[in-house]
Amino acid sequence: MSVLASKLLADKEFAAKIDALKAKYPEPRTALLACLHLCQDELRHIPAECQAFIAERLGLAPAHVRGVVTFYEMYSEKPLGKYLLQVCKTLPCMLAGSEVLLEHMERKLGLKPGQTTKDGRFTLVTVECLACCDGGPALMVNDELYKNVSPERADEILKELE
Ligand code: FES
């Protein structure tokens, strides 16, 4: 287990937050997504030990929790970079130039989709529709959505993150 995961699991405040989420929902299992977000926000991923911890706290089977983590693209079992760069690869964005944008970002960052820079700053991934199909190519950086992102605009966005 990583040091960060150990610290999080030993943190009474983290356990209290999980319990508070559990109490907020009518069924413990309906608090699962929120608990997973909480973990991922803290660690930039959801390792197996944290999945087991959350499963126990919510009274769920660990396999169920893992199934949810691996089903949704927004969760990761591998550590993500500080900035998660999500390029939409669905058809409307592709027709608007998302392939050109992706190739540009791959070259600029020296990454292929799914990879993270060695300094842990950037993870590049491709995703399905980001729900702004009239504004392609769409790029999401953590929780922020950018529309009509040209390669030049991507350079500006990355510079703002430095
Ligand atoms: S197709 Fe890219 S946001 Fe919908």
Task: Write out key terms for the chains shown.
162 residues; alpha+beta; Arc Repressor Mutant, subunit A; Glutaredoxin; 2 domains; 8 helices; 5 strands; elongated; binds FE2/S2 (inorganic) cluster
Residue stretches low in confidence (pLDDT < 50, at least 5 long) are none
How is the CATH topology of the largest domain named? Glutaredoxin
> What integer value in Å does the Rg equal?
18 Å
Query: How many strands?
Result: 5
- Individual helix count: 8
For this structure, what is the CATH class of the largest domain?
Alpha Beta
- Main pleated sheet: 5 strands, mixed
Quote the beta fraction. 5-15%
The small molecules bound here are: FE2/S2 (inorganic) cluster
Mean of all residue-level pLDDT scores: 95
Q: Provide the CATH superfamily of the largest domain.
A: Glutaredoxin
Helix content: 40-55%
Number of domains: 2
Describe the protein.
By secondary structure, the protein is of the alpha+beta class. It has two domains: 3-71, Arc Repressor Mutant, subunit A (Orthogonal Bundle), CATH 1.10.10; 83-161, Glutaredoxin (3-Layer(aba) Sandwich). The protein is built from eight helices and five strands; from the N terminus they run αααααβααββββα. The chain has a five-stranded mixed sheet with strand order 2-3-1-4-5, with helices on one face. β4 and β5 form a beta hairpin. The relative contact order is 0.12. The model has no long low-confidence stretch (mean pLDDT 95). The structure holds FE2/S2 (inorganic) cluster. FE2/S2 (inorganic) cluster is lined by residues 88, 90, 92-93, 129-133, 136, 138.
